[in-house]
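Tutorial handout. Part one gives the primary structure; part two gives the three-dimensional structure as tokens.
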Amino acid sequence: MKKIITFLFVLSFFSNYAQEKIDLNYYLPQNVNYNPKIPTPESVIGFQVGEWHVSHDKLVHYMQTLANSSDRITIEDRGKTYEGRPLLLLTITSPKNHQNIEKIRTEHLKLSDASATDVNISNMPVVVYQGFSIHGNEPSGANAGLLVAYYLAAAEGKEIDELLNNTVILFDPSYNPDGLNRFATWVNIHKNQNITSDNNDREYDEVWPGGRTNHYWFDMNRDWLVTQLPESQARIRSFHQWKPNVLTDHHEMGTNSTFFFQPGIPSRTHPLTPKLNQQLTAKIGEYHAKALDKIGSLYYSEESFDDFYYGKGSTFPDINGGIGILFEQASSRGHAQNSENGLLTFPFTIRNQFTAALSTLEAGKNIREELLTYQQNFYKNAQNEVNKDKNKAIVFGDAHDKGKTYQFAKMLERQKIKFHKLNKDVNVNGTKFLQNSSYIIPTNQPNYRMIKAMFETRTSFQDSLFYDVSAWTLPMAFDLNYGYSNNVSTAGEVVTSLDFPEGKVNGKSDYAYVFEWDEYYSAKALYTILKNNIRAKVATKPFSIEGKTYDYGTILVPVANQEKSSEQIYALLQQLAKETGVDFNAATTGLTQGIDLGSSSFRILEQPKIAVLVGEGITSYDAGEIWHLLDTRYQIPVTKLDTKDLSRVDLSKYTTIIVANTSGRTLNDATDNLKTFVKNGGVLIGYRNALRWLNSKKFIKLDFKKTKLNAKNVPFAERRDFRGAQVIGGAIFEAEIDLTHPIGYGYNKNKIALFRNTTLFVKPDSTSNYKNPLQYTQKALLSGYVSEENLEVLKGTIPFKTAGMGRGKVIAFTDNTNFRAFWYGTNKLLMNAIFFGKMM
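Part two.
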């Protein structure tokens, strides 16, 4: 009985502590006066910071109120999220600096110009970009941002004056407005008046897909380099307008953790990052340690995380002459949870983030000249590397695909990388680049190191463990031809603005039109044609007509016997040519060299009606990538079918169902429904681990190949590292592709680069008399890390297989063809499976 009473007392104590009313004194530095004319967060949002999770609209309202109240703050709206929320940026500095802010900015940018000789850093402010909660369900950062902004606006005295006179703070209150709002809604609607710290409470178990991601379920902390999302594009635009010396990225981690700040594990830093970067990061870390010691918070550094992939917020600045800093706070994932380190309350997590934000600013002010000098030398040293590099330019392009080339160039443009048109056709290492479809990037420019990071292939590493991908070679991701040149003589005029390359309708016909499938946006054109009830067919054999040769996968649009008139079809194709970049060629006769236009080798196509499985058990990233691809790029409607409803939904209305990565556990009850769908003529497309489930339920027969490991001499302390080294976290591999097979339609080379982040290996079908349409080569590794054991197993395996079931098809991909929206080069594989799946 005594034990029960003691236990109840402890619970009561924790519960009371969790609900204890806090005020600003809990967070703010003491012995500081605050301007009473500056409104506190509570006076605007209606509750004390930490009492509730702030919604994005209230966060925006408070930031606007501060900007209207303080001459230290200006505010700008840089764009909108997919859900229409504003992407705000506050510029916070002294009123005097605000009066000269453009001059300060232009002077600061001279640090990144190695040729600038008139740079005086003695009185130059340091630039610190502070950003919060890029993962929406890691909200302590954004909620701490309320306090940081208030402190910077309201604090008075010599210390704050000195800080603001010597610092320009670019303040990003919410990197991820949509995710932050989604999570705030979840935890607020489940909050008890009598707060429970029981980890089993529904408040701490948000429903799929959770608040981590943006609208299309992307992890936006992987998009800094490739900039495919509107939130990233706004942020990177601000970054390059200023080139900050320090950028902070406030995150959360597991509830039983403490607090992490960088530099992280030294051996897991990208070789292009100077060692001095890590030393300065560690020096700034001393300020974090001192501040956290003062409030009694536990922390650690140099034990986890890494600085390798330049697509993260903590690493992207490192390739741009700045210092990126990751903060990871143990997460209450709501208002209060029990943890190994005691009761973890939301206010406590906020206070740690607030403390680290202020210690960053103190460090920036105190080592201002070191940071400015580091940035200046970063670009001077990069210039020295340029001078030594025998490669003076990189040429890239694709004569068959204007759209994909355009999107790659737009990515370069967003990163302020200068490129030129070619002044003539050029041959680089045996590849011909045409003047009107290619560009050249001189390496002699400030962003030399970023260019190297984008284009490099790397297969040897200091460490075998990676927090994220080990390769991202961007021209491979886009399936673009590229090559290094030792001169820039073929560089024509510099490209200052890019217009989407429109296609043409070559001639008007009352007979037929044909268009090739190699353009990236050909799928958008075909879907729109079919949606308008215009019949279309696909060529399964090559042919030539009126002096032009057409390959496998060419689309035929007959004019006769359509619901639309000849004039209406012509008008639609003109519109599509502008929107997609596709060229439509008029045919005045059906007589060709090869298959005639009336041949049965032209197969009729149907309008796809696509469902993507979502919900518990499905990897939201993968499902979101598919949704985003179809919805935003190809304007194809997508039905998102929740796994909990799948067993009772009428699937007959769909032509295609896509199963993203899943263990399949939540699909078991729907097995019969899905099999009926396929047998009745549907196409079922599975990705990654969904293949194990498809195989186990006999949708398709797959023979998996296992890696043989020998861990006999591995010490106990190194067991995790040994297992971690067998993970393929993200690398690029070469496969052969059969251009005559429908999966290869639209491709022009018989080799393709595939992104892989699984150890799922499928043996080729030894009973088939036909060539495997996709198969890894014997020397498959193109870029990235893979263990020797896994590389040996990978050789000759297949990343793609199809099987018939009744009147339908099952299509299996071991690898993600839509990775993070920047793998343009393999998006066509999915579109081929959707449009031509029944022919496979």
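Part three, for discussion. The chain has four domains: 2-383, 395-494, 505-604, 610-839. The CA atoms of residues 393 and 442 lie 4 Å apart.
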